[in-house]
Design brief:
The structure is a homodimer of 168-residue chains.
Chain A: H1 2-31, H2 38-49, H3 56-63, H4 67-79, E1 83-87, E2 94-98, H5 102-127, H6 134-167
Antiparallel strand pairs in A: 1-2
Helix pairs in contact in A: 1-2, 2-4, 3-4, 5-6
The structure holds a DNA duplex (30 and 30 nucleotides).
Chain lengths: 168, 168
DNA sequence: CTTAATTTTCAGAAATTACTGAAACTATAT
DNA sequence: ATATAGTTTCAGTAATTTCTGAAAATTAAG
């Protein structure tokens, strides 16, 4: 039927536009994170809106980038446990998918950064031998804040674990 | 008394070392944030371990940096509401101190970043017209995560407000 | 083992970032 | 009003980042 063929194509195109917009927008957001080039965000975006594993060659085609850039971005996502490799039986290709725990892993990694700030303040407080000055008051406030943030981040990890339980 | 004079001086030196270490360490931590040069962290560090307002000239001396770099870092800290200007009566100098709500302001700013991620996922979901695919499942998980984080960050703002009430 | 598809690594180029030092600007004390 | 201490801006430079494209390495099928 002609009607059908005419109708489906534009729909598909619109969906592709939405996905491409998402990929580029995520690229910009991720670029706002240190040591996260835009390409990392774009590859992450591709994995998020893909309906199955993607090879690096497919990512290169979708993003019109070099294989080198895709490989580097892929490594970053694997290192950060945002992406996962999956084998494709009967093929020497390696598929990439979004890690099932990508966001939980992101949260987990964030905790160590927050701890660095908390520990730095605490360590300096100890060096200053608890004298009572504006400086030590500042450091105590700094430490209290980052300890509080860490606590909340741990609660988010628990939230993930409860979610997972509910799914099963 | 000689004993006193001999004893106090090394103590002071040790304290200064501790402060300088703090300043440099915070420089490195802050350098880990996009669009935050190390100098911003160092100036922030100076303000945190200072026992009173500092002028830009004093910051330059402590950090052995150029006035230009100090001025730019100062502007960044003022824009982000990490630092506050205080007038010094009878002087044309402007003092800089750590903002009393520095960490609360940091948290507040962080929320808009998290919202960007949540909104991007939601917007793309709407564009994809709630089809039921792996892609939309990914986007729903992404949105749920960032909404959850936003909620926790708002709780931290409340925690700050409660703290402030207790202080008074 | 050989071959071919795929991935990684790396040199070089382009773009960006962050500093210095000097000149321009601002504001206050006299 | 003037002089001067203090601050900002900006051109130039050094360092860093991120990409491309090609060569090297890896891996699995035949």
């Amino acid at each position: 039927m002609q009607d059908n063929a005419v109708k489906v194509s534009p729909d598909d195109a619109r969906i592709d536009d939405a996905r491409m917009e998402f990929i580029e927008a995520l690229g910009f957001l991720v670029e706002g994170i240190r040591w996260m080039p835009r390409m990392v965000g774009r590859v992450l975006g591709c994995l998020l809106v893909a309906d199955g594993p993607l090879t690096q060659a497919e990512l290169r085609d979708q993003l019109d980038a070099s294989l080198g850039a895709v490989s580097t971005a892929t490594r970053t996502l694997l290192d950060k446990r945002f992406a996962l490799r999956v084998g494709i039986p009967g093929s020497r290709q390696t598929g990439l998918i979004i890690h099932p725990d990508a966001w939980r892993n992101m949260e987990e990694d964030g905790i160590s950064g927050v701890q660095s700030y908390a520990n730095l303040a605490l360590h300096t407080l100890q060096e200053l031998e608890d004298e009572d000055s504006p400086a030590t008051a500042n450091l105590r406030k700094m430490n209290a804040y980052f300890v509080e943030v860490e606590q909340r981040m741990r609660e988010i990890l628990q939230w993930f674990d409860e979610q997972k339980k509910l799914e099963q």
